[in-house]
Structures are given as structure tokens and as C-alpha cells.
Write a structure and sequence with these properties.
Layout (H helix, E strand, L loop, with lengths): L17 E8 L4 H12 L4 E6 L4 E6 L6 H10 L3 E4 L5 H30 L9 H4 L4 H15 L1 H12 L5 H21 L9 H33 L5 E6 L2 E6 L8 E4 L8 E6 L2 E4 L1 H4 L5 E3 L4 E2 L4 E2 L4 E7 L5 H15 L6 H26 L4 H14 L3 H20 L2 E3 L2 H7 L4 E5 H5 L5 E7 L6 H12 L5 H12 L12 E3 L3 E6 L2 E6 L1 H6 L15 E7 L2 E9 L6 H10 L3 E5 L4 H11 L3 E3 L4 H13 L4 E5 L5 H6 L2 E5 L4 H6 L2 E3 L5 H36 L5 H20 L7
Parallel strand pairs: 15-22, 15-24, 22-23, 24-25, 25-26
Antiparallel strand pairs: 1-3, 1-4, 2-3, 5-6, 5-7, 7-13, 8-11, 8-13, 9-10, 9-12, 14-26, 16-21, 17-18, 18-19, 19-20, 20-21
Helix pairs in contact: 3-5, 3-8, 5-7, 5-8, 6-7, 7-8, 7-11, 8-13, 11-12, 12-24, 12-25, 13-24, 13-25, 14-24, 16-17, 19-24, 24-25
Amino acid sequence: MTLAALEPPPGDAAPERRTVEFALSGLACAACAARVERQLNKLPGVEAAVNFAAERAHVRFDPGATSVEQLITTIEKTGFTATVSTHATRDAEKARRAAARKEEKRRFLIAALLTLPLLAQMPFMLMGEAHHDILPRWLQFILATPVQFWSGWRFYRGGFSALRGGAGNMDALVALGASMAWGYSAVVTLAGLHQYHVYFEASASIITLVLLGKLLESHAKARTAAAIESLARLQPRTARIERDGGLVETPAAELIPGDIFIVRAGEAVPVDGEVLGGESHINESMLTGEAMPVAKSVGGKVYAATVNGNGLLRCRATGVGAHTLLAGIIRLVEEAQGSKANVQRLADRLAAVFVPVVAGIAAATFLAWWGLAGNFTAALVNAVAVLVIACPCALGLATPTAIMVGTGQGARRGILIRNAQALELAEKLETLAVDKTGTLTTGTPAVTAVFPTRAGTGETDILALAASLEQASAHPLAAAILAFARARNLEIPPLTDEARTVPGGGLQGAVNGVQAHIGSPSWLAAQGFIIPAIPPELAGQSIVAVAVNGEILGLIGIADPLRTSSRTALARLARLGVEVVMLTGDNAETAAATARAAGIARFEAGVLPGGKAAAIEALKASGKRVGMAGDGINDAPALAAADVSFAMGAGADIAMRTADITLMKNDLDGVADAIALSRATLAKIRQNLFWAFIYNILGIPAAALGFLNPVVAGAAMALSSVSVVSNSLLLRPRKN
């Protein structure tokens, strides 16, 4: 695949189909996203994918069968709002979501402040009735009521929307449990029934703890949206175009195909185009991941957001707006993120059954005790005991506490984990695709060998001559040669006249009054030099030939060396049962050399951004759980397409924002650490869910039969929460 393969066609391949993207608001959980997607896909001619993390819906539809208005109406009928999202509306969406996060934070902080005095009573719950009411009940009522109905209003709204759609969710569970605890306590307080306990602290703490989880979730969503924004910001905002014989600076967004624009040295290319005049090198590493600049001359293609080197280029615009290569990469990232299966949290899945079952048991308990035993007080107390023991406090803590401990331990090890989904999927990773440059290798060219080819010439002579010429170049290969020479403390002779650079070839100039050349063997061969045989040791490397007075003195091999830790990391991954596949945009020979050095059996070379994402999809199609480790902008689509993705901390910002896990130490060993941490964390989550539900399984029947009063039920509920938190704190991943 070539870079041009990512460019969209001038028009839709199927004009009868349209694609629209909606910005959604009001999604409470993955179940909400799934419900919206299900309702949209029921419409004729509609293919919809809803991304809960990004709060977006990508919809492809037949305008003859369905309209945009119908799509919006369908989303609104499920209880959510939708607006058509475009590049022009992104800033407004960002501002709206920032305001929503600010409001969520305010509601949580107020809930926490009101709940703290109530929580101060909880240690005294088991000490008897005389010690229970530390605060007057009227004050408890005043503190708990705004937490219940102001801070916790989102749970009532979300739970009602879920029930209206025919399914229960975590919001419904939270609203039901907290409402019954608050409602019972309010009746007891307002009726002056001092012989009964109240549970205002239980209702308020449930709301506050779950609000904290929602606040953390909204920050994760913000980071997901920032990945796309950081890509869009790469493209320059202005361009210099030819108008009426002069240059005019104009917004890049206003360029049209055919406009002539100028790119000066050091500037970023504003749009995709074709070179009409000038010669230069362009750094395309943000697209290809390779550090070597690409020579550009008349007829060459340039791409938006790539950086021009030391020459001036005159170009004709060929791709603008949504038809640039950069826009194509943005689409790939958005589509890959949207196509990820939204992992339905276990608590939400269980809530669909748990909510009606618990409500039914509580109702049956009330009716049985009142109808059969004729005891209204016992009926009410036992029904509330069922609901109190079933309150989802431990269930709500089971996953977050383990994840908080796991991610905290990961951070101390330089492993930054974005969300629970990354931990869930990393546990079952079977195949890991890795980028070459900057991931397996250091990402910086370095001299590997110097081969004299003329008798009587030493390595020092060749290096000194090469370094003297390369002082006049800003090319990465020149920097590698200079760094190697300086590390050996060589005395570098001065140039006796100005060196001339030949783009894509090399340099020529006088050193100590002698004409010297340095450059690629093919360029020197074109100048009439006789090129010696290339040593096998330099296979797959960049080769620089050094010549003086018409004769080749020697060859210098330059390569991107493996990180010192790569082999150890790959061995650890093998022990974990993970197969490693290398994907690189470099040529086959260089890729093969790197794979041999790293001990990797399977690799694909010449793979560019779209090809990497396609390779990930192909690996996933084989039925395997696939991860991706990379560091460049070119890796972003593949990182988004993988089941779980890892970015090197020194890599591009978009790679880190797109990836699920960032490795701050730039070491593949961190991938093995992350997998081990994932397995330990998931084990704790399963244990926590067991403890959360064992209290319900044992306690609900006991409460229904009258063996548990609400005080003991509340204590059991608190004990289940303590068990879950304590178990999470014992998390210790094993080193493999």
C-alpha cells in the first residue's frame, strides 16, 4: 500500500449512501450506547456504530429510506440527545463537554461534603442504638436529601431511560437502592418513629461513590476526544498561495485543488500536493514512522502536516480539506475507535436481571409478611432489609477499587493505563504487533561499521573526512556520522570551501584542498565512481560511501539499532504465550535484518498507516486477541484498531492519546509488565465480585425470612464493601 492509498476518492463510491456523525449526550453506560445502536440499526438502510467512550455515533444510511431528522428523532426517543458533528462544530462540542465535566465535578464535591458528616456515624453502627444517632435525625435528613435528589438526579434520569427502553442498568440499581434507604429513613424521621434506625448515610454514600466513578469515566472520555483533536491540529492553519503574480497568506481550509502554494524551509506543508519546482527533503516520519527524510523534486508528492527541510518548494494542491492524507488518518482512527466492541461491564449486565429480581423479592417479602402474618411493621422492615442488603455499594466498588490499585501500581512502574477495558483485554492477549522504528529500535540512526576499501586507509581517516563534509548537512545520517566521530574524539578537519548538497544524493566539497564526495553508492556510481562490493554485514542498512580524488575510500554502515532491552522483552512475551509480529514501513531488507537481530519470526515490511490498521484487522479476523505497540503518528490507526494498544512515552502525542496503555520507559518490557498486571487485576476483580454477591446470595434470603433487620443488613453491606477494598489492596502482580 502507498501513502496515496489512504486518500479518499473525489466523490463517494456509492452516492446513494450517506455517512453522518452525531455527537451524543446523556449516555450513562455501555448499555446506553448499545441501546442507541440497536434502535438505529432497526431503521431501514441504516448501519450504525456507537462509540460510548467518544460519545459519538457513526451512521451510514440510505437517504431514500431514512433522513437525518429521523435518525435524530430515534436517538431522542431512547432518552438521549444528538447533534450532527462536523469539523466546524468540534470546538462547540468540546466546550459543551468541558462544561458538563465541570458540572459533574461540582455535584460530586457538594455530595462529598454533605456525605462526610453522615459517614462519621458508620463506625458506630455495630455499637448499638444508643450510639447510632450521633447527628440529630432532622440534620441527617437535611444533609442526605440534596445528595439524593440533586447530586443523584442523573441516576434517576438514566435509570428511567433504561427501564423505558426495556432494560435495567447500573443507574436503575443505584437509584432503587439509594431511594429505598432514603425513603425508609425519611418516613421514620418524619413520622417520629425513634424506635427504628435510619439509613441516610447509606443512601448518600452510594450516590457519592458512584458519582466519583462517573467523574473518572468522563475524564477518560475527554482523553479519547483529545486524540482526534491533536491530529487535526497538526495541519497548518495558513498557506502561502500565488495570486496575481504575488504571494498571499490565506487559511489552509480555503485552498482548492489546483491552487499553487509555496513551502519554505522548515515549514509544514499545508495540504497534499505535487511539486512543480524546487528540491528539498521532507520529514514524513509522522506518516511513515521512518526517521529518514524523503527527497522531493519536480513531480514528487507532498502531504499535509509533513515538515519541509532546507529547500524551497513550489507545489500545486491536489488534496484539500477532507481529501488530504492527514484527514484519511483521522478517519481511520475514528472508525477504528468506533468499531471497537464496547465492553459491557459485568455490573451493568447483572443489573438487567438483578434490579427486577431484587425489587420482586422485596415486594414479595412485604406482601407475605403483611398478608400472611398481618404485621405491617415487620413487612416494611424486612422489605427494606432486603433492599439494604442488596444495595450495590460493594458491587459498585468491586471493579473500580481493583482498577485504582492496579493502575496505581502500573503508574509506579511507568505503565499508564487509560481504562478498565485495557486491563480486561490485555489479560487475554495472544498476538502483539509491534512497530519497528522507535519501538523495537531506538528510532535514531547510528553508525554500525566502517569498512575501508582502499589499501592503506584506516577507519579514522574515513570517519574524519566524512565528518568534515557532513558538517554542512542537517540530514539524520550526517548527524549519526558526526556523533560517532565526536564520540571517538576525532579531530575533524575544516572544509576549505563551501560544500554543495545534492538532494537525494550526497555532498561534495574540498577538505584540506582535496575534492571529496560523500553520499549514496548509487549517486556516486552515477558520478563515475567504481563502487566496491557491499559487505554482507551491511545488508539491510543505509550505506554511505566516502570518496576522494575520484576513488572510493570506504563505506559506512548506518542503521537504527535495537533497544538493549528488546530481546529480553520479546523472550518474556513468549513465556506469557504472546506471539510477536513486526509491522514496519521500512523496506523488506532492512525489516528482515531487524527481525533477525530481535529474534522475530514473522514480519511485514513496506506497511504504511492504512496497511498497519488492515494488518491488525486481519490478525483479529483469525480469531485472536490482538495488541499493538507503536510510537508514531503513523501507528495511530493501528493502535486504535487493536483490541488493546501500547504507546511508547517518548513517541508522538497522538500515539499516546490513541493507545490504551502508555509505557513511559520506552521499553517493550513494559508490555509484559502490563499483561502481568492485567492478569493480577482481573483476578482481583473476579474475587471482588464474588465477595460483593456472596453477601446478596446469603443475605437476601435471610432478610426476606426476617432473620436480618435493617441494622444488621446495613452492617453486612458495609462489611462487603470493606472486604472488597481490602482484597483490592492485596493486589500484587507476579514478575514473569
